[in-house]
Amino acid sequence: MRIYASIEDFFQSPLFITLALVIFFGIIVLAVILVKKYVKPFQNTEKPKSDKEIAEEEVNRLVTDITDEETLQQMNEAARELEKDSDRPTEQEVAEEEVERATEAVEDEAAAEAMRRYAEEHPEEAAAFQDKEDK
User: Fold this and answer.
1) Does residue 84 contact residue 77 with C-beta atoms inside 8 Å?
2) Which long-range contacts (CB under 8 A, 24 or more apart) does 49-57 make?
């Protein structure tokens, strides 16, 4: 560390200049914080919005009502075509698939017993499985 011969040498040094700048800007930041906290016109009275409010505003901004009859008719036709063309399984097929998946051979006796109890509690799914086995 350098020893300064006089106080004037210290004030001319880069260390003093750097410290003086940091202290100067620190005082400015401290003053701004205190003004924002205690001076009424500068206080922030706006409350932050909840996530739900933000989401609702975003949805309202993106979603618009369709007022054009031609566009509305085209959208309804496209929706009907999608319903016709879809290869969705029926509820019965879904129940059969679920029963088949749930009643595959199981080596664990506890799991097999749980499946038997489930079949007793849900006879509609068991009936779908029985219909499939009969075919």
Assistant:
1) no
2) none
> Among residues 96, 89, 94, which one has the least CA distance to residue 126?
96
What is the C-alpha separation between 87 and 8, in angstroms, rounded?
89
pTM of whole model > 0.85?
Answer: no
Residue pair 87/61 in contact (Cβ under 8 Å)? The answer is: no
Closest by CA to 66, choosing from 78, 55, 53, 54, is 78
Q: What is the CA radius of gyration of the chain?
A: 37
**Per-residue pLDDT tens digits for 88-108:** 777 788 788 887 776 666 667
Q: Please name the residue that has the structure tokens 């200049």.
A: 17
